[in-house]
Amino acid sequence: RSESVSVMDSAAPEEGSLIEGVSDPVLLVLGLSVSFLLAMTTLLCRNEQQRIHPENQEHVRVVREQLQSEQLSSSEPRHQFYSDMSCPVCLQQAVLPVETNCGHLFCGPCIMAYWRYGTWLGAISCPICRQTVTLLFPLFRDTRRSAQTQEDQVEPALILRDIHDYNRRFSGQPRSLLERLRDVPTLLRHAFREMFSVGGLFWMFRVRILLCVLGALMYLASPLDFIPEGVLGLLGFMDDFFVILLLFIYISIMYREVVTQRLAG
Question: 182-201 in b/e burial notation, b at 16+ Cβ within 10 A?
Answer without folding.
Answer: bbbbbbbbbbbebbeeeeeb
